[in-house]
C-alpha cells in the first residue's frame, strides 16, 4: 500500500506492520479512513511523535491521492479494524441529468447520476426501514465475497439533500444532489452499493418498497436484481468511530 511504502521510507529498524480499518473497493473514495502501524526506530533514536509522523508520511505521499490528517500513539492492544465501533458510509446521487455528459466536470467520478430524472424519495425512505436493524444480508452481498457471516446490523440509514460544488454557487439549478448515509459496525463486500442500488430502483418505480423486505428474506445473492448495484464512484467512507 502507499502508506506502508511511505512508512518504510522513514527508515525504521524493522519492517513496518500496517493495518487499515476498512478496505474499499476500486473506485470508492475515503473522506477519513483510519489505520495503525507499528514502526520501530533504530536504538538510541527517539520514537516519532504524532506530528513528526504526519509530516514525514505526507512528504513521501505527495504524488499519491492520500493524506494523513492526524496521528497519535495508541496502546499495543489497539487494532484499527477490530476495535472500530462503527463505520459510516456516504453515497452521493445527482438527479436531473438526462445524459452522463451533463454531470458537472468537477463532480465527475464523485457521484452517480442515475438515468430517469427525479426519484420517489418517500418510497425510498419507506424501503430503507426494512434494512434497519440486524438481518442476514446474504442477498446484498457480492457473489464472490469472502466466506464470512452474512449477519450485519444497520444502525442508521438517512436519505437527505446534499450539497454540490456548483449548486453552492447557484449554477445548474435543475440538478439536485442527494446523499444516502449508512452507519453500521461492519459491512459485507459491496453491501452498501447493493443497498443503494436497490433503493434507487425503488425510487425509479422498478421495485416496490416491500420488495426490499422480500429480497432480505430470500437470503440469496443470486436473487439480487441484475444491474441494480450502484457504481463505485459515488461511495465514500465518511468516518470510522472508536
From TrEMBL:
CDD domains to which the protein is assigned, alphabetical: PseudoU_synth_EcTruA
Record-listed E.C. numbers: 5.4.99.12
Binding residues for substrate: 89
One GO molecular-function entry: RNA binding
Residues forming coiled coils: none
Domain Pseudouridine synthase I TruA alpha/beta: 127-242
Protein's UniProt keywords contain Isomerase: yes
Keyword line: Isomerase, tRNA processing
Catalyzed reactions per annotation: uridine(38/39/40) in tRNA = pseudouridine(38/39/40) in tRNA
Active-site residues from the entry: 25 (nucleophile)
GO biological process: tRNA pseudouridine synthesis
Domain of life where this protein originates: Eukaryota
Keyword Isomerase applies: yes
Family in the record: Belongs to the tRNA pseudouridine synthase TruA family.
Protein name per UniProt: tRNA pseudouridine synthase
Annotated organism of origin: Regulus satrapa (Golden-crowned kinglet)
Amino acid at each position: 500500500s502507499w502508506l506502508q511504502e511511505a512508512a518504510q521510507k522513514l527508515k525504521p529498524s524493522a519492517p513496518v506492520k500496517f493495518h487499515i480499518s476498512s478496505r474499499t473497493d476500486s473506485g470508492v473514495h475515503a473522506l477519513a479512513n483510519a489505520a495503525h502501524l507499528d514502526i520501530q526506530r533504530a536504538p538510541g533514536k527517539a520514537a516519532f511523535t504524532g506530528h513528526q509522523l504526519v509530516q514525514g508520511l505526507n512528504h513521501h505521499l505527495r504524488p499519491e491521492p492520500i493524506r494523513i490528517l492526524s496521528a497519535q500513539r495508541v496502546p499495543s492492544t489497539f487494532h484499527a479494524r477490530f476495535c472500530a465501533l462503527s463505520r459510516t458510509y456516504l453515497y452521493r446521487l445527482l438527479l436531473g441529468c438526462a445524459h452522463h455528459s451533463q454531470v458537472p466536470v468537477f463532480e465527475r467520478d464523485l457521484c452517480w447520476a442515475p438515468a430517469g430524472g427525479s426519484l420517489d424519495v418517500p418510497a425510498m425512505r419507506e424501503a430503507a426501514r426494512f434494512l434497519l436493524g440486524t438481518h442476514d444480508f446474504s442477498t446484498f452481498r457480492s457473489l464472490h465475497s469472502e466466506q464470512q457471516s452474512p449477519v450485519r446490523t444497520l444502525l442508521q440509514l438517512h436519505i437527505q439533500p446534499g450539497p454540490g460544488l456548483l449548486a453552492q454557487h447557484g449554477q445548474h439549478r435543475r440538478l439536485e444532489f442527494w446523499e444516502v448515509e449508512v452507519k453500521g459496525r461492519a459491512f459485507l463486500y459491496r453491501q452498501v452499493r447493493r443497498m443503494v442500488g436497490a433503493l434507487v430502483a425503488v425510487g425509479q418505480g422498478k421495485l416496490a418498497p416491500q420488495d426490499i423486505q422480500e429480497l432480505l428474506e430470500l437470503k440469496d445473492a443470486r436473487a439480487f436484481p441484475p444491474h441494480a448495484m450502484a457504481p463505485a464512484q459515488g461511495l465514500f467512507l465518511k468516518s470510522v468511530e472508536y
